[in-house]
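Bumping with the actual sequence this time:
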Amino acid sequence: MIKRVALVLAAVVLLAVIAGAVYYFRLTADVEVSDASPVAPTLAVPTAAASPTTAAVEPTAASADPAAATTAPAATAPVAGARVYRIDAAQSTATYTVSETFFRENNRVANAVGTTNAIAGDILIDTANPAGSQVGDIVVDISQLKSDSNRRDNAIRREWLESATYPLATFANARIVDLPSDLQAGQPFSFKLEGDMTIHDTTNPVVWDVTLVLDGDTLRGSASTTLAMSDYNVSPPDIAGILKAEDTALLGLQFIATAVE
């Protein structure tokens, strides 16, 4: 009797492993995704009105007063110290890092890392009035994320993250917190960036740790945050008998942005 139960249990385990393997190979089949760059709303350099000018006009029948004059519309000029920097996708990367346990390899734990340069967004830095600095929407095409495993990437696109269906991750409504009051060129400055992250058609508040360096027409930056996949209606990868991923993901952004003329 005991032997029969053991055989049944062994058969159940074997069937579960086989089912997991079949499921794994099915969901890792190649998925075609776009290689186009995402588009983000642009920021405009703030302008200030110049002093209005008064110009003399010739008297007319309606105005016999030779001293009559008209006020010309006030001109505008860029605010001194304010510049918009646009992320250069070719020189920038967005990454995820997630811990995975591989059951078939003596429960080996390793970090899965995926990267993409499909990034878009604007940042306005105002050195004369740092409080006037802004961060526009940052958009990343997460369907283009690539790791060291095509099977993992296709599984993420097809089912785990469904990024083939929901390709864009967007950070919006940014609020800069604890920005230094003096922004010096060549000197790194750090701050918190609060806002709303939308992934997999779900939006949650997140806080990024950001460090920037101004270098003439170039703005260099890095940002990082952590989030739980389950908060975005995404189940951490879990394939019976093969692997299991942690729920926590570390997100990173390394970028170079150039000044918009």
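The tokens above came from a reply further down the thread. The domain at 2-46+79-259 is CATH 2.40.128.110 (Lipocalin).
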